Amino acid sequence: MDNNNNYSQSYSPELTLSIVMRKVYGRMFLGLIVTALTAMYVASSPALINLILGSRGVFFGLIIAELAMVWGIAGAINKMTTTTSTLLFFLYAILNGATLSIIFLAFSLGSIAYTFFITAGVFGAMSVYGYFTSNSLNSVGSYCIMALIGLIIASVVNIFMHSETLDWIISLAGVAIFIGLTAYDTQKIKLMAMNATMADTGKIAVMGALNLYLDFINLFLYLLRIFGKKN
Fold first, then answer.
1. How far apart are CA 91 and CA 94, in angstroms?
2. How far apart are CA 231 and CA 61, in angstroms?
3. DSSP category for residue 80
4. What is the per-residue pLDDT for 11?
5. pTM to 2 decimals?
6. Cα distance between residue 220 and residue 196, in whole Å
7. Which of 64, 154, 207, 211 has the fewest Cβ atoms nearer than 10 Å?
8. Distance between CA 115 and CA 9 in Å, rounded?
9. What is the count of structural domains for the chain?
10. How far is residue 174's CA from residue 180's CA, in Å, rounded to a whole number?
11. 154, exposed or middle or buried, with CB in 10 Å at 0-12, 13-18, 19+?
12. Which of 107, 120, 93 is nearest to 36 (CA)?
């Protein structure tokens, strides 16, 4: 009788949720650390900076590789082992760090650190809200995704317009969108975890970590455009 109770407890939704969320935040924060260390290393190496920024082919090749990896992980997560998807996530974090190294050349280190702590505070608050709120955030997520498509279009248009006003609007909208997505993605991960089996925890953790990692990075970049002091 006791063994049966222990068995059912080990697969309870509460325990599964706890395991998944620990894995999600653990991998997400490790991913952020890997990205930060990679960006600082690349920024301190003239040879690597020359290689990445000196050639449009290399720079855009990295961007395309990153997009392909995100789509690949999302599309093939159920066919991969947890180990493979985790390794791909950290490889993505390294590639992202290489492309983000440019921020250490464009902005002062103090403003980068300041913006990072602002991002961590905002992200943490919204992730806690998304986890504990009893309200469905599905409509928030839908609006944010639609707004994100509009934001991407506006950003492309502004490449040609060079409008400072539009740039500010894009930055503020980007912050608002990724604040909403942080809460929405946290709630979505929680609901997936509550309905998952123990066998699925690893894959859910990888996708959850990737989603929240992307929310954090994008929120940070848009806040940096507002608060960052250029060198």
1. 5
2. 27
3. S
4. 61
5. 0.91
6. 31
7. 64
8. 42
9. 1
10. 10
11. middle
12. 93
